[in-house]
Amino acid sequence: MSLQLEPVHKKDKPILHNLYALFLHDISKYTNNLQINENGFFDYEDIHCFWDTEGISPYFIKIDQTLIGFLLLVERPFLKKQNDYGINDLFILNQYKGKGYGRMAVEKLFDEKKGQYFVIQVENNKPAVVFWRKVLQTSSLDLNEEKREIDGEQCLIQTFTIQ
Fold first, then answer.
1. Domains, the chain, ranges and CATH?
2. Helix or strand holding residue 127 (H, E)
3. Does residue 99 sit in helix, strand or coil?
């Protein structure tokens, strides 16, 4: 079994758009800030920015060439402050959850891109909080965690360095 992180090319935008709708549906149970549009679809309207803005990098997560999710990485020059990278979104299709693929994708990213990172979770999203704490605490990192209100929601922000 082989896990791949493949950059999402603009021609694959419709596939990523569909996956984003599933992701937004999944996380909508933890926030009041997400609503379906008039067509009954969780739509991420700014997805076009992923290819028009330097420093926003979407990746498909694949197992043996089978698409199982995506990861959205933000990096410089999009990021202006002390962090080199931020894992903005991580999504694994339900049938592949709980099998370690999310962790494998994150570890692969860390192997390829060293630097100062941040991740943010809505505090109510307990599965995400547990996932990130488990991944980060077992990686023996110098980890800083703080609570902050973002867009009216209590969030956890973890910062750490991958060397």
1. 3-162 (3.40.630.30)
2. helix 126-137
3. coil
CB 89 within 8 Å of CB 23: yes
Distance set, CA 68 to CA 36, 56, 65, 72, 93 (Å): 23, 20, 9, 14, 6
Instruction: Give, to the nearest 10 degrees, the angle between helix 126-137 and helix 101-112.
Output: 50
Cα angle for residues 12, 17, 18 (degrees, 5° grid): 105
pTM for the complete prediction?
A: 0.92
68-122 tens-digit pLDDT:
999 999 998 888 878 999 999 999 999 999 999 999 999 999 999 999 999 999 9
**CA torsion through residues 55, 61, 64, 65, sign:** negative
